């Protein structure tokens, strides 16, 4: 039996879950930015040749020969791709199950065309009924991107519920915010972006229409640097965002050696609410073997650093199983702890089937 | 759910109907992008100790804008030629490692004083 409030929360998730970013851990393990695998330099969505081959050869437990010639190309230099995610969520209150639901979360088609140095990327989000369009002019290690898109801020985690991104869409634990403002409800905005690649350093600056509040302009700067020292891969980066009175700063990084990877981020926001807000994210992943990953994550959010009663910490354990190329299955168990004497709202169990091509 | 079924249907159609289309590949004998990327990842990158962006413009892998790519193409042609010649001599196949040993520039013996 699904409670009314839980149904309502789910309907909001279904309606507003939109863009999901790439997996930054793959970028860390590969020692290069999202550009290595994705058509969009900001990551996420349609993969390039390297990304498709990486998905077939490095991610899946088994790679049938049938997929060996897959490229996504339909006609000369026109590539098509898609992304479908189906999610199930169940919750317990104490030891009592209080809800279970299976729902489509994302169904997206993307088309890329290349004409000399111009790359055009169009997308249709079928569930959310929105369009995206990016025109990118590439010149050696510099690109200029313009169109309807999202600015790239911070560590673009693929899970929009981490507190450094959007956190909980509905306030499930109280009256305070539960995450930074990068909710999946935010839509594409008119944007122009300049990107520069200096060896293993990636820099981007963008100016767009108001991304978070929908008013004024948003200016975002982002820098990330990758370094390999023998078998250890490292990444460090920072990001800033200005939109009206809102100012945000993010510092992120990661380390990978062999089967272990750690990624973390701290984000500060001035004037998101009164005074300063802080969110942090730390995730350790163990690649058990190809196609099997276990992870543990702690993320934290404090709406106002002035007070101690409004902080929330969430602990998450996850399993990621990739049985075949283009198929990704995720399981998560998570629990939130509130500051002060407020009781926890029980465990949450999530699973996601992700199909892409 | 109808949208999901339509998109999954399109996905299956493409997955089984696709043919690889290589762009600006001049000396390597591969027929699919997967084989090509596999060779780059498992042979060229580790044997030279470099990442993709050493030779490629990662915004457009097929582009010849970087001089390192042009040099690499000639080097690969040289290795192919060497293997062709040595095939008659019953030598083991050679690769970048023979000279580069994990460095982007092969090391030379120290000069005698």
Short description:
The complex is a heterodimer of chains A (357) and B (113). By secondary structure, chain A is mainly β.
Count of individual helical segments of chain B: 4
Question: What's the total count of β strands of chain A?
Answer: 17
CATH architecture of chain A: Beta Barrel
Number of helices of chain A: 3
CATH fold topology of chain A: Porin
What would CATH call the architecture of the domain at 31-107 in chain B? Orthogonal Bundle
Could you tell me the number of beta strands of chain B? 0
Order of helices and strands of chain B: HHHH
CA-based gyration radius of chain A:
20 Å
Oligomer category: heterodimer
Task: Give a written overview of the molecule.
The complex is a heterodimer of chains A (357) and B (113). Chain A is mostly beta strands and 357 residues long. Helix content of chain A is 9%, strand content 54%. In chain A, β11 and β12 (260-270) form a beta hairpin. The longest helix of chain A is centred in the first third of the chain and has 13 residues, at 4-16. The two termini of chain A are 35 Å apart. Residues 1-19 of chain A have low confidence and may be disordered. Chain B has helices at residues 2-17, 33-48, 67-87, 97-100. The model of chain B has no long low-confidence stretch (mean pLDDT 83). Chains A and B meet through α3, β2 and β3 of A and α1 and α2 of B.
Kindly list the characteristics that best describe this protein.
heterodimer; A: 357 residues; mainly beta; Porin; 3 helices; disordered N terminus; B: 113 residues; Photosynthetic Reaction Center, subunit C, domain 2; 50% helix
Please give the structural blueprint.
The complex is a heterodimer of chains A (about 350) and B (about 110).
Chain A: H1 4-16, H2 24-30, H3 49-59, E1 73-75, E2 78-93, E3 96-115, E4 118-125, E5 130-139, E6 142-149, E7 189-198, E8 201-209, E9 217-229, E10 232-243, E11 246-257, E12 260-270, E13 276-289, E14 292-302, E15 311-324, E16 327-338, E17 347-356
Antiparallel strand pairs in A: 1-2, 2-3, 2-17, 3-4, 4-5, 5-6, 6-7, 7-8, 8-9, 9-10, 10-11, 11-12, 12-13, 13-14, 14-15, 15-16, 16-17
Chain B: H1 2-17, H2 33-48, H3 67-87, H4 97-100
């Amino acid at each position: 039996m699904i409670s009314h409030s839980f149904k309502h929360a789910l309907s909001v998730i279904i309606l507003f879950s939109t863009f999901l970013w790439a997996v930054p851990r793959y970028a860390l393990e590969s020692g290069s930015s999202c550009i290595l695998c994705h058509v969009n330099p900001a990551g996420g969505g349609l993969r390039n040749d390297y990304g498709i081959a990486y998905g077939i050869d490095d991610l899946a437990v088994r790679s049938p020969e049938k997929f060996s010639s897959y490229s996504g190309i339909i006609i000369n230099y026109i590539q098509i791709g898609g992304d479908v995610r189906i999610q199930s969520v169940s919750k317990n209150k104490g030891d009592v199950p209080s809800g279970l639901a299976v729902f489509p979360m994302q169904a997206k088609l993307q088309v890329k065309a290349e004409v000399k140095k111009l790359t055009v990327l169009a997308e249709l989000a079928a569930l959310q009924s929105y369009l995206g369009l990016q025109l990118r002019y590439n010149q050696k290690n510099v690109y200029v991107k313009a169109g309807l898109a999202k600015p790239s801020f911070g560590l673009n985690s693929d899970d929009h519920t981490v507190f450094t991104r959007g956190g909980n869409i509905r306030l499930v634990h109280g009256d305070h915010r539960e995450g930074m403002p990068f909710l999946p409800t935010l839509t594409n905005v008119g944007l122009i972006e300049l990107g520069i690649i200096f060896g293993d350093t990636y820099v981007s600056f963008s100016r767009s229409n108001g991304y978070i509040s929908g008013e004024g302009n948003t200016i975002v700067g982002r820098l990330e640097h990758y370094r390999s020292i023998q078998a250890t891969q490292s990444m460090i980066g920072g990001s800033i965002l200005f939109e009206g009175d809102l100012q945000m700063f993010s510092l992120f990084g990661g380390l990978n050696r062999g089967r272990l990877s750690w990624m973390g981020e701290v984000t500060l926001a001035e004037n998101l609410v009164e005074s300063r807000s802080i969110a942090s994210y730390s995730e350790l992943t163990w690649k058990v073997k190809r196609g099997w990953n276990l992870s543990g994550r702690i993320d934290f959010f404090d709406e106002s650093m002035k007070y101690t009663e409004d902080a929330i910490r969430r602990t998450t354990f996850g399993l990621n199983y990739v049985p075949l190329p283009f198929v990704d299955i995720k399981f998560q168990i998570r629990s939130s702890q509130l500051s002060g004497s407020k009781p926890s709202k029980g465990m949450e169990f999530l699973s996601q089937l992700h199909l892409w091509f | 759910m109808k949208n999901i079924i339509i998109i999954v249907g399109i996905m299956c159609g493409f997955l089984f109907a696709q043919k690889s289309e290589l762009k600006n590949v001049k000396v390597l004998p591969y027929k699919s992008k997967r084989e090509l990327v596999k060779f780059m990842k498992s042979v060229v990158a580790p044997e030279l100790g470099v990442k993709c962006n050493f030779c490629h413009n990662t915004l457009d892998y097929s582009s010849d804008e970087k001089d390192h790519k042009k040099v690499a193409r000639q080097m690969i042609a040289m290795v192919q030629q060497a293997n062709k010649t040595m095939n008659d001599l019953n030598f083991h196949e050679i690769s970048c490692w023979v000279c580069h040993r994990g460095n982007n520039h092969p090391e030379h013996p120290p000069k005698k004083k």
